[in-house]
Amino acid sequence: MNQGLIPSRYAKALYEYASEQGADKRVFDLMKTLSASFEAEPGLMKVMANPFIAPADKRKLLTSAAGADKNSDSVYERFLSLLTDNNRLDLARDIALAYMKQYRTDHSIRLVTVTSASPLAKTDEERLKKLIASHLDGATMEYKSCVDPDLIGGFTVTVDNEKLDASVANELKQLRLKLLN
Protein backbone atom coordinates (compact mmCIF):
# COMPACT_ATOMS: atom_id res chain seq x y z
CA MET A 1 0.00 0.00 0.00
CA ASN A 2 1.08 3.60 -0.56
CA GLN A 3 3.08 5.04 2.39
CA GLY A 4 1.28 8.38 1.97
CA LEU A 5 -2.15 6.80 1.90
CA ILE A 6 -1.85 4.97 5.20
CA PRO A 7 -0.83 8.03 7.27
CA SER A 8 -3.54 10.16 5.67
CA ARG A 9 -6.21 7.56 6.54
CA TYR A 10 -5.06 7.39 10.15
CA ALA A 11 -4.89 11.18 10.31
CA LYS A 12 -8.40 11.53 8.91
CA ALA A 13 -9.78 9.01 11.40
CA LEU A 14 -7.96 10.74 14.27
CA TYR A 15 -9.22 14.14 13.14
CA GLU A 16 -12.83 12.93 12.98
CA TYR A 17 -12.59 11.26 16.39
CA ALA A 18 -10.84 14.26 17.97
CA SER A 19 -13.49 16.60 16.49
CA GLU A 20 -16.28 14.46 17.96
CA GLN A 21 -14.56 14.64 21.35
CA GLY A 22 -13.97 18.40 21.05
CA ALA A 23 -10.22 17.84 21.20
CA ASP A 24 -9.20 18.60 17.60
CA LYS A 25 -7.34 21.80 18.55
CA ARG A 26 -5.51 20.09 21.41
CA VAL A 27 -4.51 17.18 19.17
CA PHE A 28 -3.36 19.69 16.54
CA ASP A 29 -1.09 21.31 19.13
CA LEU A 30 0.24 17.89 20.16
CA MET A 31 0.90 16.99 16.52
CA LYS A 32 2.76 20.27 15.97
CA THR A 33 4.95 19.54 18.98
CA LEU A 34 5.48 15.95 17.83
CA SER A 35 6.44 17.09 14.34
CA ALA A 36 8.84 19.66 15.77
CA SER A 37 10.41 16.94 17.94
CA PHE A 38 10.99 14.75 14.89
CA GLU A 39 12.52 17.73 13.08
CA ALA A 40 14.76 18.68 15.99
CA GLU A 41 15.91 15.12 16.65
CA PRO A 42 16.41 13.11 13.42
CA GLY A 43 17.35 10.01 15.45
CA LEU A 44 13.74 9.75 16.60
CA MET A 45 12.73 8.26 13.23
CA LYS A 46 15.39 5.56 13.63
CA VAL A 47 14.09 4.71 17.08
CA MET A 48 10.51 4.41 15.78
CA ALA A 49 11.65 2.13 12.94
CA ASN A 50 13.80 -0.07 15.20
CA PRO A 51 12.02 -3.43 15.70
CA PHE A 52 14.12 -4.22 18.79
CA ILE A 53 12.65 -1.38 20.84
CA ALA A 54 9.51 -2.36 22.69
CA PRO A 55 6.27 -0.73 21.53
CA ALA A 56 5.60 0.43 25.11
CA ASP A 57 8.88 2.34 25.09
CA LYS A 58 8.05 3.85 21.71
CA ARG A 59 4.66 4.96 23.07
CA LYS A 60 6.30 6.63 26.06
CA LEU A 61 8.71 8.37 23.72
CA LEU A 62 5.89 9.59 21.46
CA THR A 63 3.91 10.79 24.47
CA SER A 64 6.91 12.72 25.72
CA ALA A 65 7.85 14.06 22.25
CA ALA A 66 4.33 15.43 21.77
CA GLY A 67 4.23 16.98 25.24
CA ALA A 68 1.11 14.98 26.03
CA ASP A 69 -0.29 14.39 29.49
CA LYS A 70 -1.44 10.79 29.95
CA ASN A 71 -4.29 11.86 32.20
CA SER A 72 -5.82 14.69 30.18
CA ASP A 73 -4.95 13.71 26.60
CA SER A 74 -7.08 10.57 26.32
CA VAL A 75 -7.69 11.07 22.58
CA TYR A 76 -3.96 11.05 21.92
CA GLU A 77 -3.46 8.03 24.18
CA ARG A 78 -6.21 6.10 22.35
CA PHE A 79 -4.54 7.08 19.08
CA LEU A 80 -1.22 5.68 20.28
CA SER A 81 -3.00 2.50 21.38
CA LEU A 82 -4.44 2.10 17.89
CA LEU A 83 -1.00 2.61 16.33
CA THR A 84 0.49 0.09 18.75
CA ASP A 85 -2.21 -2.50 18.07
CA ASN A 86 -1.76 -2.14 14.30
CA ASN A 87 2.05 -1.99 14.45
CA ARG A 88 2.11 1.52 12.93
CA LEU A 89 4.10 3.51 15.51
CA ASP A 90 6.79 4.07 12.88
CA LEU A 91 4.28 6.20 10.91
CA ALA A 92 3.65 8.64 13.78
CA ARG A 93 5.54 11.52 12.14
CA ASP A 94 3.78 11.10 8.78
CA ILE A 95 0.41 10.84 10.51
CA ALA A 96 1.17 14.01 12.50
CA LEU A 97 1.98 15.89 9.29
CA ALA A 98 -1.19 14.61 7.60
CA TYR A 99 -3.28 15.55 10.65
CA MET A 100 -1.87 19.09 10.67
CA LYS A 101 -2.63 19.43 6.96
CA GLN A 102 -6.21 18.22 7.49
CA TYR A 103 -6.73 20.57 10.45
CA ARG A 104 -5.32 23.57 8.58
CA THR A 105 -7.49 22.85 5.56
CA ASP A 106 -10.69 22.51 7.61
CA HIS A 107 -9.94 25.65 9.66
CA SER A 108 -8.68 27.83 6.76
CA ILE A 109 -5.21 28.16 8.19
CA ARG A 110 -2.44 29.01 5.75
CA LEU A 111 1.13 28.13 6.63
CA VAL A 112 3.32 31.17 5.88
CA THR A 113 7.11 31.10 6.07
CA VAL A 114 9.20 34.19 5.46
CA THR A 115 12.90 33.57 4.95
CA SER A 116 15.23 36.55 4.84
CA ALA A 117 18.97 37.01 4.41
CA SER A 118 19.18 38.76 7.78
CA PRO A 119 16.69 39.25 10.62
CA LEU A 120 13.87 41.63 9.65
CA ALA A 121 13.19 44.74 11.71
CA LYS A 122 9.98 44.40 13.75
CA THR A 123 8.25 47.18 11.79
CA ASP A 124 9.18 45.60 8.45
CA GLU A 125 8.05 42.19 9.65
CA GLU A 126 4.70 43.55 10.87
CA ARG A 127 4.17 45.38 7.57
CA LEU A 128 4.98 42.19 5.65
CA LYS A 129 2.57 40.17 7.83
CA LYS A 130 -0.23 42.65 7.13
CA LEU A 131 0.49 42.57 3.40
CA ILE A 132 0.46 38.77 3.33
CA ALA A 133 -2.71 38.60 5.44
CA SER A 134 -4.50 40.90 3.02
CA HIS A 135 -3.87 38.36 0.23
CA LEU A 136 -5.12 35.31 2.13
CA ASP A 137 -8.84 35.90 1.52
CA GLY A 138 -9.78 35.85 5.19
CA ALA A 139 -7.77 32.74 6.04
CA THR A 140 -5.86 32.62 9.29
CA MET A 141 -2.10 32.81 8.98
CA GLU A 142 0.28 30.50 10.85
CA TYR A 143 3.44 32.59 10.57
CA LYS A 144 7.05 31.51 10.86
CA SER A 145 10.18 33.43 10.01
CA CYS A 146 13.74 32.24 9.56
CA VAL A 147 17.09 33.54 8.38
CA ASP A 148 19.13 32.11 5.49
CA PRO A 149 22.31 34.07 4.70
CA ASP A 150 22.60 32.20 1.38
CA LEU A 151 19.85 34.47 0.02
CA ILE A 152 22.47 37.28 0.06
CA GLY A 153 19.69 39.87 0.32
CA GLY A 154 15.92 40.13 0.04
CA PHE A 155 13.51 37.43 1.17
CA THR A 156 11.24 34.56 0.13
CA VAL A 157 7.62 34.10 1.14
CA THR A 158 6.14 30.62 1.10
CA VAL A 159 2.38 30.25 1.55
CA ASP A 160 1.54 26.56 1.83
CA ASN A 161 3.26 25.27 -1.34
CA GLU A 162 3.47 28.53 -3.29
CA LYS A 163 6.71 30.47 -3.18
CA LEU A 164 7.52 34.09 -3.99
CA ASP A 165 11.27 34.55 -4.32
CA ALA A 166 12.47 38.16 -4.02
CA SER A 167 16.03 37.29 -3.05
CA VAL A 168 19.29 38.51 -4.52
CA ALA A 169 20.40 34.88 -4.93
CA ASN A 170 17.37 34.22 -7.16
CA GLU A 171 18.05 37.36 -9.20
CA LEU A 172 21.65 36.25 -9.74
CA LYS A 173 20.46 32.79 -10.74
CA GLN A 174 17.99 34.27 -13.28
CA LEU A 175 20.71 36.53 -14.66
CA ARG A 176 23.10 33.58 -14.98
CA LEU A 177 20.44 31.59 -16.89
CA LYS A 178 19.85 34.49 -19.28
CA LEU A 179 23.58 34.81 -19.96
CA LEU A 180 23.89 31.10 -20.68
CA ASN A 181 21.12 31.17 -23.30
Quick structural gist:
It is built from eight helices and four strands, in the order H-H-H-H-H-H-E-H-E-E-E-H. By secondary structure, it is α+β, with helices and mostly antiparallel strands. It is elongated.
Helix-and-strand structural type:
alpha+beta
Give the low-pLDDT segments. Answer: none
Would you report the number of β strands?
4
What count of helical segments does DSSP give? Answer: 8
Average pLDDT reading = 93
The description of the largest β-sheet is: 4 strands, mixed
Content of β-strand: 15-25%
Order of helices and strands: HHHHHHEHEEEH
Principal-axis shape: elongated
What is the helix fraction of residues, given as a range? Answer: 55-70%
Give Rg in angstroms.
20 Å
Strand order of the largest sheet: 2-1-3-4
N-end to C-end Cα span = 44 Å
Describe this structure in words.
This protein has helices at 5-21, 24-40, 43-49, 55-66, 74-85, 92-106, 122-134, 168-180; strands at 109-116, 140-147, 154-159, 162-167. It has 181 residues and is of the alpha+beta class. It has a 4-stranded mixed β-sheet. Strand 1, helix 7 and strand 2 form a beta-alpha-beta unit. The termini are far apart. 22% of the residues are buried.
Secondary-structure blueprint:
Layout: H1 5-21, H2 24-40, H3 43-49, H4 55-66, H5 74-85, H6 92-106, E1 109-116, H7 122-134, E2 140-147, E3 154-159, E4 162-167, H8 168-180
Parallel strand pairs: 1-2
Antiparallel strand pairs: 1-3, 3-4
